[in-house]
Design a protein that fits this description.
23% of the residues lie in helices and 24% in strands. The protein is built from six helices and 16 strands. The structure holds the ligand NC(=O)CCC(=O)C(=O)O.
């Protein structure tokens, strides 16, 4: 179990984002393709180094849409902090992700999948699972804020038709950083990122899938905002755009540094991007603009304490 008071020392590492394409109706094919891309990302072709951590996008094993979530949902039954036996899991996605992380000996943020509650069949979550290089499932995040929007003439989407929101904030420790988790629409709620940063996270990674309406407006703005207001690295990993799918993802997976500079950005097709994360930028941002030391908790409450 991670110790809240002592994050690991922040060391340089390489991050790979898989902007996954070919996410269709056939779950087996989705899993097969995701695995192939994880192995490809792990080879680090075109990067200066092999990645230490690999990230998949939101909803990588199923088409994205509220009607699909219950159909593709799998039971995981993981409780953070408790031992979990992947071999006994009934989730084929968890088994694939665990085996892939072990095979490539890298950390893996397994995008998200629809997850059915083990005890309550009526509850389905949008869930991100995380694996260490030994293939152990070590962390999980259930999307807290469900994507329910209605912009007339543009986009209407209601995750809450079939999904239940998560109730916890989540992070995990590696040997190189403390990493906070969120999923897509969670980025619009600064509280989640702020709590993670106040709990010592150096990097926040959110699998996501913005769309053709809100993507051009807010995808970059929100990531740069969360990065600069918390002085952390911030990254979102999207599926590739597929105009034959029911939901047209914006793509543009990216990594932003603590000064809000976009370090790397994908286009809209299938692509793997690699970014070397340098803790120097993190420390320089915090030393030069010391907002982390200037907070006025005498004037407003420290939300991380709630
Ligand atoms: N998958 C999502 O949560 C989409 C969020 C989104 O597009 C937004 O504008 O917010």
């Amino acid at each position: 179990m991670a110790n809240i008071l002592t994050p690991p020392p922040f060391k340089a590492f390489t991050l790979a984002l898989i902007q996954l394409g070919k996410i269709g109706a056939n779950k087996q094919e989705n899993l097969h393709h995701a695995r192939k891309m994880i192995l490809q990302a792990a080879r680090g072709e075109g990067s200066s180094k092999k990645p230490d951590i690999i990230v998949l996008p939101e909803c990588f094993n199923s088409p994205y849409g509220h009607v699909h979530f219950p159909v593709y949902a799998e039971k995981i039954g993981y409780t953070p902090g408790s031992p979990y036996n992947v071999a006994k899991s009934t989730s084929e996605s968890v088994k694939m992700l665990s085996a892939a992380a072990k095979e490539v000996k890298a950390w893996l943020i397994g995008g998200s999948i629809p997850e059915r509650d083990v005890e309550d069949d009526d509850k389905v979550y949008n869930t991100c699972t995380v694996y260490n290089p030994e293939g152990d499932l070590v962390a999980m995040h259930r999307k807290v804020h469900l994507f329910d929007i209605d912009i007339p003439g543009k986009i209407k989407f209601k995750e809450s038709e079939t999904l239940t929101g998560g109730t916890t904030t989540n992070f995990f420790d590696t040997d190189f950083a403390r990493i906070g988790l969120g999923i897509c629409y969670d980025v619009r709620f600064p509280e989640l990122a702020m709590i993670a940063a106040r709990k010592g996270c150096h990097v926040l990674i959110y699998p996501g899938a913005f769309n053709m309406t809100t993507g051009p407006l807010h995808w970059e703005l929100l990531q740069r905002s969360r990065a600069v207001d918390n002085q952390v690295f911030f990254s979102m990993c999207s599926p590739a755009r597929d105009l034959s799918a029911g939901y047209h993802a914006w793509g543009h997976s990216m990594v932003v540094d603590p000064m809000a500079k976009v370090l790397k950005e994908a286009q809209d097709g299938e692509e793997i991007i690699y970014v070397d994360i340098d803790p120097k930028v993190f420390h320089e941002a915090r030393a030069g603009i010391p907002v982390t030391l200037q907070r006025r908790f005498d004037v407003y409450a420290d939300v991380s304490q709630q």
